[in-house]
Amino acid sequence: MERSTLHIGDRSSQKLVARRYNVERSCIRCHERKSHDANTNTSLLHGAPTAPTEGLLVEDGTSTQYANEFLFSRGLEKESELQSAIDPPDSTNNSETSFMIGFDGLISKPQSAVDTFSLFPSRGQATHLWQMYLNNVDVLLKVLHIPTTQPAVFAAINHPNTASQDLNALLFSIYFAAVTSLRQAEINVIFGEDRQAVLKRFQRGLEIFLHSAEFLDSPTIVSLQAMSIYLLCYRNHNCGRSGWTLNGVLLRTAQWMGLHRDGERSNLPPLECEIRRRLWYQIIGCDARAGEDHALSTNGYGGFSDTKLPLNIDDRDISPNMEVAPTSKPQWTEMTLFLITAELSQAHQKMSRLSTAVLNGDDKMTSLEQLLETITTRINNRYLQHCDPNIPIQKSALLLGQVLMGKLGVFVRQQYLRGLSAEESASRASEQTLLLACDTIEIDNELKTDELLSNFHWLFSTFTEYHLLTYILWHLCVRPGVHCADRAWQLVDKSFNLVENPSWPNPGPKWNVLRKLREKVFHIRCSFSTIPFTSTRPSNNAVPEIFGHREDELPGDAIPSSVLGIEDVMNWD
């Protein structure tokens, strides 16, 4: 079999034809099957019929690209210039093509003989990488139970020839993750060679041992852990469609193993239940983030999953010999950051489903506001109030929680504009929503630049705030004279400078669209004068103000949207 990779070509010069059409959701709707969630009220969604989801299909010869994020797809619908900008990056980009996991190893038997032991680091290097994994990766990604995993890791480091194939795959994913989190100068000290060469060697080892472990046909929890760790780091090196595709493979494998069903149903031991829960929420969270890179909304898996959230505990609180699970702690634990992201990701999926439900407009908005208030109160009281901003990982959790809640607040506020014409949307654009988006972007920039959090920037730099930036640019487009325009532009400029830093991961195909949109808005801005505006951002322990008045019509500076060239960007009917 020939080695196959996903080719990313430059098609910007080719003619693109776009059409919008309705696509029925393929997953089981949440109102058709009662999902179990012990922590979040889902009654708001139960029984609400779901409308077909609108999307945009961009065609090019024998290939197509689909987008169903309504803000993004409606903005592209009538803009051929923006449609062409969504093309993926040129395949000549080495940072992209160097990290495509291939069929030669993961799926098919490697074609050429490989001395696998030449791929292993020395024991000293391996021990150092394990410690870097604990410091820089495990604190963000709790799919391993360290007290039980660490002895197995050191045994495999000492005797790799006797370790199981899936454990060796886990080792190589750990090595790959650790190197991903390090800078070139640190790699030079450990290996004395180029970072890319080290990463490719460890990726190759992962591929070979996943194949030897028969990952696709006979997956294990250990091989799932290996693939989950790898895919979290994969986005740092490759923003192409292969990551989205591989997440689908991982998701199907997890379903085959029944991770979408809570282990308590099968009377599994408490530790095994916890590991399965952690894995499931990591996999679906990674899938949602991968979809955002390509303007795809999964709307979650609540309709066919009853897996409970993991417990808010430290690894030392649970062990293999326990017969009764411990209880969650009302304090900071090693799982707190993981749970913040898991719960807010699930809340976003529920809101996305509710936003397309066939409900009366007022009922829908009331339900969305209730859900938003419930989740923000819960996250703040259960997690954020226990975060110490002087401790790096806890400050990371605090800022990340504020960013995710701010995004939810902007999402809910935008629903007030649903069904309005383009000009009505422009005239009713609320400055409060713009301020919330700006506050959230400001916190996001801090998350990605704070020197105290530098060990975690390898991951946070992959969280591109497409939605918030798109909203800010749209708002500045339709209301260029808004009072806080100067501040908004400064934040947009800072975000663009960060994302386009050559040392940062490639932001993906959607970024070209934002770049084009920014150029359009810049020309509009040049025709208007703005009033300088100074705003005080929320303190570190404060949640961004999410609630307020509805999108009331504001007089003054709105301009006809037909002049803007992106007239349908917020028209969601």
Automatic annotation (TrEMBL):
Biological source species: Penicillium frequentans
Residue ranges occupied by any Xylanolytic transcriptional activator regulatory domain in the UniProt entry: 131-281
Entries under InterPro entries matching the protein: Sec_Metabolite_Reg, XnlR_reg_dom
Pfam family, one: Fungal_trans
One GO term (biological process): DNA-templated transcription
Signal sequence coordinates: none
Taxonomy, superkingdom: Eukaryota
Gene Ontology MF term list: DNA binding; zinc ion binding
Keywords, alphabetical: Nucleus, Transcription, Transcription regulation
Localization per Swiss-Prot or TrEMBL: Nucleus
UniProt GO cellular component terms: nucleus
Protein name per Swiss-Prot or TrEMBL: Xylanolytic transcriptional activator regulatory domain-containing protein
